[in-house]
Amino acid sequence: MNTVIAIDNVRKSFSTGFIPKKKEILKGISLKVEAGEIFGYLGPNGAGKTTTIKCVLGLIFPDEGRIELCGRPHLDPRAKERVGFLPENPYFYDYLTAREFLDFYGQLFEIEKAERDRRIVSLLHLVGMEKAAGLQLRKFSRGMLQRVGLAQALINEPELVILDEPLGGLDPIGRKEIRDIILRLREEGKTVFLCSHILQDIEMLCDHVAIIVGGRIMSQGRTSDLISEKVLFTEITVSGVEKSDLAPFGESLTAQGDRTLLKVFEEGKIQDVMDLVRRNGGRIHSLIPRTQTLEDIFVDMVKPQ
Amino acid sequence: MKIRTVQVIALNTFKEAIRDRILYLLLFFAAVAILFSRVLALLTVGDRIKIIKDVGLASISLFGALMAILIGTGLVYKEIEKRTIFTLISKPIRRHEFLLGKYFGLVLTLFVMLLCMSVIFLVLIFFHTWTVEWNLLVAIFAVFIELILITAVAVLFSCFSTPILSSLFALCFYLIGHFSWSLETLIKKARPGAGRTVLRVLDAVLPDLENFNLKTEVVHGLPISAAHVLYATAYGVVYAAFVLTLAVLIFRRRDFV
Amino acid sequence: MKKNVALALVLLLLALSFAGLKLRIEAIPRPTVPGSSIIYIPSGKYLKMASFGYASLLADVIYIWAIQYYGNDAIQDRFTYFTHIFSIISELDPRYVDPYEVGALIAIYDKRDTRLALTILDMGLAKNSDMWIFPLEAGHYAQMYIKDYELARAYYKKTMDIAGAPDIAKRLYAAASFKTSDLKTAWETWLDVYKTADDEQIKKIASNHLYEVKAAVDAAALKSALEQYRERFRRNAADLEELVRAGLIAALPKDFDDKDYLYDPATGEIKTQVSPWKR
User: Fold this and answer.
1) Which residues of chain B have pLDDT under 50?
2) Rg of chain C's alpha carbons, rounded to an integer?
3) What is the pLDDT of residues C37-76, one digit of tens each?
4) Considering just the CA atoms, what is the radius of gyration of chain B in Å?
5) What is the pLDDT of residues C105-144, one digit of tens each?
């Protein structure tokens, strides 16, 4: 298992304003990403997620610390050959067509023309943009740009793919498609570094997670380790039973039509509720044990700030 | 530095620039100006060709400079503003390869534009004199050298300033370059001493764009010294290299926030 | 860091190179066509339209250029478009006084052409009928350099007619009139000066001039009488009394101070007893 990204105590401050005032954005970030996993990087707005990524890619120069990509210093062009990057809210060259655009980036990697054409075709197919291949990018919608951006990130068949908010601006179908692509990348043995706000996606996709708040890594580890299996409460949706009858077993929440949503905190009481419903001839529509989600941890972590 | 990378970016910049509408607007005005000289020629008494030559060369020079400044100052700035530079820098290219690629792409674009304007101009002259004067081509070549220098300056400012400010600075450079005669007059009138030495240093360092102005020779049919053209070309190229090196220096450690 | 230092050194090297090249280029002689920078000079009117409201600034720039240009002896035939250039400046900013005055000076000292200077000053007066300085200077130049007293007189008259003109104009006019032998005007004008002067010095000057004029008038009358005497008696008169006795003049004129005129029978000259300026 080799380390694909190694960030060691990176610090970065910016001086902004007319009278320069120094603001520290990254206050000593350290993290390691191993090969073949999907790594989630999350944090609230302004925590420093994008700044970290920009440091890794050489767009910003950290004041302190070291970064290594695939075992090489991060600014080495040979390291960058193995990396693909999709920025947040991507914007590309207006006057190029999708095909010309991918061809341009392909040329930067010194890929032969025949091979380039082959990859362009397969990538456009992968992201569902074959029909728009000859269309100028200025006519693309946000979602379309996102997909072409993902294609561009994969043009060099990279070992490491860095994605900054890849699921933003997509409709539900688009999001599912991109999620599937990300999972496919892991199956192919690639490493994915995923930056996102959308916690459900992170929970679904990522093996490892790092949470950054206020320029510091607050928590880092396997997703499964972070989220305990402990059941907080169980949500049961029933019908055919009076609300008042359900009261002793838990909290009764909203009722839609004749259905009542009941929140049961003690595990023992679940069986009692089920018996009650059967006795009254009612129906159990759903029974969902709610475990601690990433959102809960996240909110807890961010709240004191 | 990989030449191939610079080439790829240059061609891409060329493709992008050549599709920019402002180029064609300026080309249109240049053509109008050149053809209008024909009308002006009718108003003059005596040698008509002189007016056509002078207006033609002036138009090519002026509109070329405008193209260089207007497009050059947006060249790097737009990439930063629109954040297309993010995906580009994350590829295995060095920053100076990117910068030089943008520069040469624009130079190529200007070359094509200059060619178009020159063809219109030379055809017009041809219909008046039934000859092709080589002096004109040399004068246009000198204009081209001036343009590559102005482009370098525009790209330099584009690295750290908004297009409007950059255009102003580039325009100042252009004006200072053409007013070098006033500095020479000042030096002649100054008394020997520290002040004059400072002026002399300034004179050597500030750009002298009049070196590329062969209009007088061409219009009056005077001989153009080959040595002058050679040295002037060298001057333009070295100065442009200087400006570009400065741009690379500034661009190297710039944070793209 | 190291790379930055390397780049800085490259910068220095390039800067020295182009500075050196520049000096080398300056050494190469370029054929210049004198006055080629003003081949196509439009008329002032069109230039004014083209200046988009910056006419006065353009006038300044052209004026400054003109001073350098006309001061440059190396340019031959530089006066070919002299009037045109200054008429452009005049058209752009008619009330700008310096160009007219300096233009006239340049014409006089660099080209030694007084008439050209007068043309410029005429332009100034035409555009600024309230500026008495122009005809005053013009009269001055006419009188001093081409000794055209008639012309000078005309200028001084113009000056006098402008409100606010200094009194000296009148005196210059009177003096010029005397020089053109228009003794009547000279007398009347000097009398006017004498009467209206409130300065003792000026009164004295006026009276000196009146003395001079009277002396001239009287001398002319006496000379004419002497001539008649010579014709009749075939010899010069011995003294002026003889002219009265001969009936050629009614009475002997006295000078302005009521003194007699001196007569030299040998040469026939009439002189005053004192010089007008030493009374």
Assistant:
1) none
2) 31
3) 555 666 777 777 777 677 777 888 788 888 888 887 777 7
4) 20
5) 999 998 899 999 999 999 999 998 889 999 999 999 999 9
From the candidates C5, C25, C72, which should be mutated to test the interface with B, based on the most B CB atoms within 10 A? C25
Side-chain-facing half-sphere of B58: CA atoms under 13 Å: 13
Q: What percent of chain C has pLDDT over 70?
A: 94
Is the Cβ of B238 closer than 8 Å to some Cβ of chain C?
A: yes
Contact across the interface for C19 and B204, Cβ inside 8 Å: yes
CB count within 10 Å of CB B192 equals 7
Give the domain-ending residue among A186, A201, A226.
A226
Strands (E), B84-168: none
- Write down the pTM of the prediction: 0.71
- Domain containing A276 equals 231-300
Q: Based on the fold, state whether residues A237 and A207 are members of the same structural domain.
A: no
| Chain C residues whose beta carbon lies within 8 Å of the beta carbon of residue B228 | 25, 28, 30
Mean pLDDT score of chain A, rounded to an integer?
A: 85
> Which residues of chain B lie closer than 8 angstroms to C28, CB-CB?
225, 227-228, 231
Q: Is the ipTM of this complex over 0.85?
A: no
In a domain, A80, yes or no: yes
**What are A231's strand-pairing partners?**
A291
Rounded Cα–Cα distance for residues C195 and C197 (Å):
6
Element containing residue B239 per DSSP (H, E) = helix B226-252
In this predicted structure, the answer to whether residue A170 has a pLDDT above a threshold of 70 is yes
Expressed as residue numbers, the domain containing B51 is 3-252
